[in-house]
Amino acid sequence: MASAPNPALSPAPEEWPEELMNLGREAEAAGREQEEAALADFAQDSALNWLFVDLNSYFASCEQEARPELRGRPVGVVPMMADTTCCIAASYEAKAFGVRTGTIVADAKRMCPEIVLVEARHELYIDFHHRIVEAVESCVPVTAVCSIDEMACRLIGRERPLLAAIDLGMRVKQTIREHVGPMLRSSVGLATNRYLAKIASDMEKPDGLVALPLDILPEALGQLTLRDLPGIGARTEKRLNEKGLHTMNDLLALDCEQAGEIWGSVWGQRLWHWLRGEDFEMAELEHQKSISHSHVLAPEMRTPDAAWAVAHKLIHKAAMRLRSKGLWASNIGLAIGFAAPRSENTPVSRFGVPARGWRSEIKLHECQDNQTLIAALRRLWDSQPKGAQYQHPYFIGVQLNNLIPDRLHTLALFDGLEEEQSRTRLLATMDQINDKYGMSTLAPAAMLTAWKAAPTRIAFHSIPDLF
Ligand SMILES: [Mg+2]
Prior knowledge:
13 strands, 44% helix, 18 helices, Dna Ligase, domain 1, Alpha-Beta Plaits, alpha+beta, 5-stranded mixed beta sheet, disordered C terminus, 17% strand, DNA polymerase, domain 1, binds magnesium ion, 5-stranded antiparallel beta sheet
């Protein structure tokens, strides 16, 4: 973060009536109509739509709140007591020594010999989380819980003018301290869209309150570095540098089309609009809602066993795609088309096969792992109609529905579900390896059985639409 004085509005509301008055005076000279127009413009430019709350050094602050003997001391929160692990949070006292999230414990001890290492207690942080959300809710409705220590609130009506929004921001901070605990300090950002409000919350830490109304936006953003923007990590920064973009002003000088080209996706264009303060909903609300894969079976494959192997294969493929997009499924559907004997008077499908169709779906706890999905698929499979007309499946479709992005799943994931966490890690590793070396390199034992069962003509090794 740039350390130069920031033009963003830190809480100094007493300056603002003065500005309003100056604006009023100028306008008065120009006539009443213009005065009204000028004031309306000012109100428009200074109105804010989002308040973003980010707790400071969250895990370490929870520990300092719960254990007063840790207050004022450098604290490092670690997943386990081992020199080889890394800090997952550091108190501000530890940050003063250069200890951060990700610092290896052995290094942290060297940098700050006084550091007190504390084993992470996720239940405690979740408990505080609920109390913080409640405290914020008592001031303004929480629109979205973005992570365990971040919340976004949409402002409406009388909350939107600059002074009112700053006032609300101060009240939010104070309410958290009073109702949850004095160690729980937060940084509040106010802006016209959620993306900028998050940036604003990052501009002053700890215990900040920063507003970015439209009229100061270009100047305020110009002070940031590319890496200060959410979504720009080391890799993207490198890519931007290679394209000749080194500063925020370089980025801000692009037109919308250029921004789109540089990212090679709609993301660049969205970013362009967000950086200009436009308020429209973020990508997470536009995430993909379902993933489906289907396969028409060759005539010799139209047996229940071969069809199951294909269904199994399709769910594996859908699950890989689900994880690669950072999504979680909460519903699974199975569709089967059955070829009927020619003599029967049944509709002819577009595949030229006389057919009857069947489809069913079941709800799931949010998941993205093969094991859960395969078990659910099996339940669906076993519920398909029985009888002579249902012996020749020729079409299989699987669908994952009601998808939820990682961001919204985080809390459940965090909720002490260690088993799920390790399963998630394992699958991520498998996906990486499969992505690199071909799909059958690593697979759960159940999958291997299905692969063996399936006739060789199914191209298990080439999944052209996967990535
Ligand atoms: Mg935070």
